[in-house]
Amino acid sequence: MLEATIRVTNTLGLHARAAARLVRLAATFSSGVNLRRNDTHAEANAKDILSVLSIAAGRGVELQVIVNGVDEKDAIQQITKLFTNNFGEE
Amino acid sequence: MQHRVTAIYRNNIAMSDKKRIGGVIISHGQLANELVAAAEAVVGDLDHIRAVSIGWHDDVEMAKAEIEQAIKEVSQGIGVLLLTDMFGGTPTNIAAMFLDNNDVEIVTGVNLPMVIKVASTMRETTLHDLAKDVEEQGKEAICRATTLLVPQKLKKDA
Predict the structure, then answer these.
(1) Which of A17, A42, A53 lies nearest to residue B156, judging by beta carbons?
(2) How do the domains of chain A map onto residue ranges?
(3) In this complex, is the C-beta atom of A61 within 8 Å of any C-beta atom belonging to chain B?
(4) Which residues in chain B are closer than 8 Å to A51, comparing Cβ atoms?
(5) Which CATH number characterizes residue B73's domain?
(6) The domain over range A2-88 is classified in CATH as 3.30.1340.10
(7) Most exposed of A45, B58, B80, B83 (fewest Cβ within 10 Å)?
(8) Above 50 in pLDDT, residue B5?
(9) Residue B42 is nearest to which of A28, A40, A49, comparing CB atoms?
(10) The Cα angle at residue A36 between residues B44 and B115, in degrees rounded to 5
(11) CB-based contacts of B118: which residues, under 8 Å, 6+ apart?
């Protein structure tokens, strides 16, 4: 299991389209991918868009990305990159 | 990067092999079209979902034929879920005419999360279970946003 701490930095936060990009990326890995808000401890399955939206992670929210499985190293790298690239947004 | 592209490609192949439960969204006015358009903007192309918008003055037989055609188009042989706008309304009443067909279930009170649920369910499931999940999802998606400020009320893993 690997964990990384990331912060949502894009203007709109983890909104529907950003969440959809995250879900599409997470679904390419066999590892389980979960997100946990560090403030409320609300958790989400990063492969389920409605679950991701339910934690309502706006700009500035700090999240733990928790990845568990055979391709976890690759998964955590690429998912972290997606967040640091602001989902290709502003 | 190469690895990721390959992984997406494999994933798409795996998805295309699997049969999916179809969805038909049925509403008064243009609501159904717009719900499907919004879900598409989020999830991507939805080949297994159709919208039937029933005009306020449309003929019942014509609307019924439109729904029948939509069911045929999305059916992959494992069932079709009809999501209607309002229990007791004409779209629901017309949709109910298809209930004697065992491959059809109806969930009323459609909202965007319900359409996204049908759109994004990839795992193998039965029509009955998906209908229950979608009903539950629709209810869960309705909340007073202020309650989100109370951490313990957040659902852990939807």
Answers:
(1) A42
(2) 2-88
(3) no
(4) 157-158
(5) 3.40.50.510
(6) yes
(7) B58
(8) no
(9) A49
(10) 30
(11) B21, B23, B49, B81, B83, B130, B134
Q: In this structure, what token pair is assigned to residue B83?
A: 């999501």
A7-31: pLDDT as tens digits: 999 999 999 999 999 999 999 999 9
ipTM of the predicted structure? 0.79
Are residues A48 and B44, on separate chains, in Cβ contact within 8 Å? no
Question: Under a CB-based contact definition with an 8 Å cutoff, are residues B35 and B110 in contact?
Answer: yes
**Structural domains counted in chain B:** 1
Please give the positions of A annotated as active site. 15
Q: A88 to chain B nearest CA, in Å?
A: 15
Q: Which of A50, A51, A66 to mutate to test the interface with B (most CBs of B within 10 A)?
A: A50
Q: What is the per-residue pLDDT across A65-79, written as a single tens digit (0 to 9) for each?
A: 999 999 999 999 999
Q: Write out the DSSP string of A48-66.
A: -HHHHHHT---TT-EEEEE
Option in A25, A40, A49 nearest B120 (CB): A49
> What is the reported pTM?
0.81
A-chain CB neighbours of B154 within 8 Å are 40, 42, 54-55
Q: How many CB atoms lie within 10 A of CB B79?
A: 21
Domain span holding position B42: 20-153
Question: Residue B77 falls within a domain, yes or no?
Answer: yes
